[in-house]
Fold:
Amino acid sequence: MFNNAGLIGDGEVRVTDASTDNFKRVFDINVLGGFLGAKYAAKVMVPAKKGCILFSSSISSKISIGLPHAYKASKHGVVGLTKSMVVELGEHGIRVNCISPHATVTPLFQTTLGLFDKKKGEEMIAALAVLKGTVLEPEDFAHEALYLASDEAKFISGVNVPVDGGYNLSNQSWKMGFAALFG
Structure:
């Protein structure tokens, strides 16, 4: 079962501008939707004594970047949901994992940032990337999901896998600071 639905919301990045209705809507889709998907999958998987439940989170569950509070908090909630189900469902042979990708230039990404040119979006992400020379594609995220769902990952449970080329390990503030000093 792959809980992959999610949305960013209205894009309010300042808490003083954030709407309660938007916050609830983001949590309903990103967290409650994942919970319900896992709940009903578990009802089938527990009697079968096997299964795999995957959640989509975001690199924003590992670092704080300029995204709306509702989105970031909901993605932390998805990771928490993953962790809370691991032990309970592991007793029944069910693996539970989470995948946290970096930005990919999808139609949602383009709409959110007001970018209509895919190449420009990829150049923007590449400029900030730690791993140079490649661009994260939606297929890369799909490959990670397929791996975690496969028998090759039969003993992997309880992880939040970053698919970000090492981005979550880098402090972008340092990068910008050095560029300002020596650039």
In short: The chain has one domain: 2-182. The two ends are 48 Å apart (CA to CA). Helices lie at 20-48, 69-90, 107-113, 118-128, 138-149, 172-182.
